[in-house]
Amino acid sequence: MYMNCFFFPRDDAFITKNSTFVLRSGLFFLVGVFFLLVPDILFAQQSEGEPADTLRPVERDIERFLEDFDPDDDEIDPDEFTQFLLDLASNPLNLNTASLNELLSLPGLNARQAQAIIAYRSTKPFETIDELTAVSGIGPTTLERVRPYVTLGPRGALTRQLILSPGFWTQQGRFEFISRAQTVIERQAGFRPPDFEGQTRYAGNSLRYYQRMNYRSRHLSLNLTQVKLPGEELSGINGFDFNSWHVGLRNVGMLRQLVVGDYGVWAGQGLVLFTGLGFGKGRDVVGSPSRNERGAVPYQSSEQTRFMRGVAATVGGNLQFTGFYSSRRLSASVVQGDSVRLPSSTGFHRTPSEIARRNNTVLEMYGGRITYSMPVGLVGATGYVAEYDKYIVPATALHNRYDFEGRIASVTGVDYRLFFGPVILFGEGARSRNGGLAMIGGSRFPVGDVTDVSVVYRNYGKDFQSVFGSGFGEQSGRPRNEEGLYVGIRHRLSPMVRLSGYFDQFRFPAPRFGTRQSTMGYDVLGLAEFRFSRELSLYVLARSKVRENDYLIRDEFNREINVLGQDARTSVRTELEYMVNPRLRARTRFELVRARDRDETETENGVMIFQDLRWLPANNLTIDLRLAVFETDGFTSRIFAYENDLLGTFSNAVFSGTGQRAYILARYAPNSRIDIWLKYGATVYEDRQTVGSGLDESAGNIRSQLGAQARIRF
Prior knowledge:
Blueprint: H1 13-17, H2 19-43, H3 57-66, H4 78-90, E1 93-94, H5 100-104, H6 111-121, H7 140-146, E2 150-151, H8 160-164, H9 166-170, E3 174-184, E4 208-216, E5 220-228, E6 242-252, E7 255-266, E8 295-298, E9 308-316, E10 319-330, E11 334-336, E12 339-340, H10 352-356, E13 361-374, E14 377-392, E15 406-420, E16 423-432, E17 437-447, E18 451-460, E19 482-494, E20 497-508, E21 519-531, E22 536-554, E23 560-581, E24 584-596, E25 604-618, E26 621-632, E27 639-642, E28 652-655, E29 658-671, E30 674-685, E31 690-691, E32 698-699, E33 702-713
Parallel strand pairs: 1-2, 12-14
Antiparallel strand pairs: 3-4, 3-33, 4-5, 5-6, 6-7, 7-8, 7-9, 9-10, 10-13, 11-12, 13-14, 14-15, 15-16, 16-17, 17-18, 18-19, 19-20, 20-21, 21-22, 22-23, 23-24, 24-25, 25-26, 26-29, 27-28, 29-30, 30-33, 31-32
Helix pairs in contact: 3-4
């Protein structure tokens, strides 16, 4: 039924066509090798006694996620994820008091391991972080993964005297102020003077500005985040388009969490309520299908839609109850009168039409969650009611047929995570107000000592309506109109070699975006990782995805005929990372893509090679450099590549056409309280004279960006 999983050119046509690119890439690689050898000589004398790994563990976790992130996927907020990890590293969890949900938020830790930590500390408190390896199921690899996010502290009982003591609230306290500005250097159409009266232009300048003031201690959290996006107006300190704030308390006796202001709720497997961190399929082939909940926690991301504003509280021990109330103003397109579309997820208020609908709809939500933790796992139930002050009207396209309509939406569900020896069972079932059903169930289990397997089945009804859900699947975001079976396997071939892969077969019972009928497809990934030493590693990743899509053609009588075709995309990536010396890390990547749209007979090809360097010329200065060259036949064969960026920001470049990309990022820390970042990046295209489209179009073949950020901590 389907084409071969991995398909590549069978002749030399592609190489001949791209001979210029191949020669340029070869020269580029030789220059990179020379560039690496020179610093090796220059810095050999000063490398003695310095750490071998200059890549910070937190940054590695961020990279691990963002490398798998699809920029076309607008349902996932990578900024929220990076901010979460940075905050977690700045305020690590106390191994002796962290709740199950808090432990589940740690990267690399699954539910069985979190439960084992709680069981271990019930007999004796942790005295060192290295003692984690004495916990069942946790080895050296997991220890190093979670080390940046955990600390030690007493298990002492809380007393009234402690609560009244200022020292209780300021213990391990830290204030942080971040100010960040970014802009595109070329003048885009939306920022130029109008050519005629009434022509649409952006209201503000091209600057993206962000500032955040945050205080965190073991028991107290205070935050104010303010954002101005490019094209939005900013009039004084109170004129930011987006303002987010909260006051939070945590781990005060039986009160696990209390938030007044902005917060998010991450519950169960995400079918009912999961306001962020919607991980999809990726290189963690065994762990990624299972959501790790965080409960109700303070919100401090710059993403402007998927959060709540009001009050939320969690109380209890093994039996916990969370209740929440939220009232927020959102922006929605007006259909007519008191009817609107579902509120926008962009957060943009730049043009007259966007400004006119700013905060024109009120969403009021209330609900709760109850969980019970027991020796064999955790069970929970979640529900909420959402009331809009305007009537929500779905769009008229076929794929919108089962979208939410009305003023009141509600969803309820039950979920579980159970442990039977080394076997983990997880799942959730949910029902929306209109009767739509959704479920997901899976198991993670070992096969012998060196192999782990994950099997997951999901079935999200076409009429299931969960406005704030985020379920695992082919379609990220709201879980609906999807059925699939996923199998992931990870095998440790030797201490130096690990093999991973998954196969995911899926179908969409009703039309989805861009289709008029039921469709299906599959996604397959293979990954080989080689860790030759602490200084040298290599991975090879191959992925192929085929999805049915339909399109219209006209026959000889000029009649429209609906034809079923396939979108197909295969990519192969090889990346080598090596420490030239303790002050210089290098990374070389080569990626090849072959893709075809449903209505095209010709297949597009794309290729990219880049060279990364991370250089530490001094202990308080880090410099990241990248040089990349790319060539693709079109947008269908585009290639994605994550970039290091200013702290807490997200950058995943999309390469299409022919050109080069380079950036330099410098971080300077004059002392332990101040950090300064500067980044300049530019993409030069060889096949166009304008970059972008619409109001974002700029003249010329260059698109460059400049960013600066300062952070003060004390």
